[in-house]
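User: Could you write out the 3D structure of this protein bound to magnesium ion? I've included everything you need below.
Assistant: Certainly. Input first, then the structure.
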Amino acid sequence: MAAKTWAAVDDYLNELIVRPDAALAAATAASKVAGLPEIAVSAPQGKLLNLLARMMGARRILEIGVLGGYSTIWLARALPPEGRLISLEYKQKHAEVARANLAQAGLADVAEVRVGAGVDLLPTLTGPFDFFFIDADKEGYPDYFRGCLKLARPGSVMVFDNVVRDGKVIDAATSDTAVEGARQLHAAIAAEPRVSATSIQTVGSKGYDGFCMAIVNR
Ligand code: SAH
Ligand code: DHB
Ligand code: MG
């Protein structure tokens, strides 16, 4: 099946049921104008994050890797009125673009972007968070898993983006450090009895990849 078909199906789904709105389109456009890489989650994937956060009643969300704030907007919209989101971002420029995009989406008071490396900022946070979306450097995923677990409670949910990478995740001899990060994440989860997890392979406008999802056991 061609990637062209996957993207066309995303278009069909977006128009009919995903329905990304003007604020999301504006965030995508502003991110492109600012020269950010076009690696945000797709609209159907953003909607999935939104639905998952709503399904589990998330009130506090932590994201690692804000880019232009596209996934952040989907996630922040899942929160109840008193809910809050924090997103950690290494690059000052990305943080500034994301803050502007969040403001134009009316979410400036809901979502806060903190600048720094994920591993440095995680220990400065106070938990518990209900929902985690991890989408920064893939090499950091095993550390982010351990760090987020410390900020979690029984029932907290973690979602990791980009864990299949065109199927390369099964290549034990890989020299791709991002793939190695996804492999080490799966190994860390396998060795951690406090969580139950799965990974789901995905296709769409962003190609062939996947999400890892874990829940902290009650
Ligand atoms: N979640 C975004 C996409 C994030 S892209 C979306 O779907 O819309 C990955 C982001 O992680 C980039 O902005 C990159 O600068 C940031 N990043 C990379 N290494 C990081 C690190 N060590 N700590 C925090 N952020 C990092
Ligand atoms: C890359 C990063 C992402 O978060 C993503 O969704 C796709 C690609 C990358 O660094 O190549
Ligand atoms: Mg990603």
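Helices lie at 3-18, 22-33, 43-55, 70-76, 92-104, 118-121, 141-150, 177-190.
User: Perfect, thank you.
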